[in-house]
């Protein structure tokens, strides 16, 4: 039978079949160290016989075949910080996985809040406005997890565990008020586990992506992680244009013509100087 690994614990490989029934399996010697959650395998009589080739492997957390990363932020408590959101987007773009932007606690938003994030939709991202508390926008989000391997990430306190508890049957993750959190030791290392979403999708809460470290990215690579820049590549006067100070820059012109959002361009420039400085 064909299955997908959901977690590995103490020599056992928990594996789900196509109907998301879970089996606790052993594995044939050699492939043992090369199989991770998200890998597709072939199994029979309690034993995994072989692993199928994977299309990708994420390292922190280690999960194979991830299709989408849900970047969860909240309107308030903690306050939405565009710079943090952009940093997450850069990290996800860099590993060439599709990001979905999920803004939780939308019931706390003031009039006009959604418009402030219009530039992300214009850049080509899907933005979901949800409230786990008031059950707003959850169904539409779940529809987008269908048949995919999804990973959750985002700052502490935005409601990731709350969201999992809402959309994964039987899940009971710990949820804590933001004010009751310890400043240190919040990121305890957890087991990586893929949890089944009702429609056949998979969702993993991530203990990784915590350091938000982008300093290994080359400054001249950064432009590729702003999808709204794509149409303008190669159109500047100078081939090596950094899109920061050079004359006749196609990106700067696009900003002036309001084809690229000024805030996103400022974000690019600021990360660019972080990487060069
Ligand atoms: N107002 C409001 N509060 C929410 C909503 N969803 C979750 N919360 C609250 O936000 C707080 C943090 O929720 P968690 O689910 O623990 O957040 P988390 O993202 O898992 O945090 P870490 O595990 O530290 O990364 C809790 O007090 C939740 O009750 C929502 O839609 N609206
Ligand atoms: Mg949590
Ligand atoms: Zn340029």
Give keywords:
OB fold (Dihydrolipoamide Acetyltransferase, E2P), alpha/beta, six-stranded mixed beta sheet, 7 helices, 277 residues, five-stranded mixed β-barrel, Rossmann fold, 3 domains, binds zinc ion, binds guanosine-5'-triphosphate, 21% helix, Ribonucleotide Reductase Protein R1, domain 1, binds magnesium ion
Topology:
Blueprint: E1 2-9, E2 12-16, E3 22-27, E4 40-44, E5 47-51, E6 57-58, E7 63-64, E8 68-74, H1 82-94, E9 98-104, H2 113-116, H3 118-122, E10 126-129, H4 138-143, E11 149-153, H5 160-167, E12 194-196, E13 202-205, H6 250-256, H7 262-276
Parallel strand pairs: 3-5, 8-9, 8-11, 9-10, 11-13
Antiparallel strand pairs: 1-2, 1-4, 2-3, 4-5, 6-7, 12-13
The chain binds guanosine-5'-triphosphate, magnesium ion and zinc ion.
Zinc ion binds at residues 236, 241, 243, 246, 249-251.
Structural account:
With 277 residues, the protein is of the alpha/beta class. It has three domains: 2-54, OB fold (Dihydrolipoamide Acetyltransferase, E2P) (Beta Barrel); 58-205, Rossmann fold (3-Layer(aba) Sandwich); 219-276, Ribonucleotide Reductase Protein R1, domain 1. The protein contains seven helices and 13 strands. The strands form three sheets. It has a six-stranded mixed sheet, sandwiched between helices. The protein is globular and about 65 Å long. Magnesium ion (MG) is lined by residues 160-161.
């Amino acid at each position: 039978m064909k299955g997908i690994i959901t977690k590995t614990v103490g020599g056992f490989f928990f594996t789900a079949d196509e109907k998301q029934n879970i089996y606790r399996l052993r594995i044939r010697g050699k492939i043992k160290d090369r199989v991770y959650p998200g890998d597709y395998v072939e199994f029979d009589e309690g034993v995994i016989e072989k692993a199928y080739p994977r299309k990708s492997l994420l390292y922190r957390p280690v999960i194979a075949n991830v299709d989408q990363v849900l970047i969860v932020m909240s309107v308030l408590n903690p306050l939405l910080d565009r710079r943090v959101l952009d940093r997450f987007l850069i990290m996800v773009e860099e590993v060439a996985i599709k990001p979905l932007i999920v803004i939780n606690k939308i019931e706390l938003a003031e009039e006009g809040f959604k418009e402030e994030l219009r530039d992300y939709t214009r850049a080509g991202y899907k933005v979901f406005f949800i409230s786990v508390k008031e059950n707003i926008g959850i169904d539409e989000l779940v529809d987008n997890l269908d048949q995919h391997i999804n990973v959750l990430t985002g700052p502490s306190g935005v409601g990731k565990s709350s969201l999992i508890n809402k959309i994964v049957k039987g899940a009971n993750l710990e949820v804590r008020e933001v004010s009751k959190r310890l400043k240190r030791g919040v990121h305890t290392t957890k087991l990586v586990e893929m949890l089944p979403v009702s429609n056949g999708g998979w969702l993993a809460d991530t203990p990784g992506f915590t350091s938000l470290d982008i300093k290994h990215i080359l400054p001249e690579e950064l432009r590729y992680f702003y999808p709204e820049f794509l149409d303008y590549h190669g159109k500047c006067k100078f081939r090596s244009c950094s899109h920061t100070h050079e004359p006749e820059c196609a990106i700067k012109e696009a900003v002036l013509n309001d084809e690229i959002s000024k805030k996103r361009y400022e974000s690019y420039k600021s990360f660019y100087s972080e990487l060069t400085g």
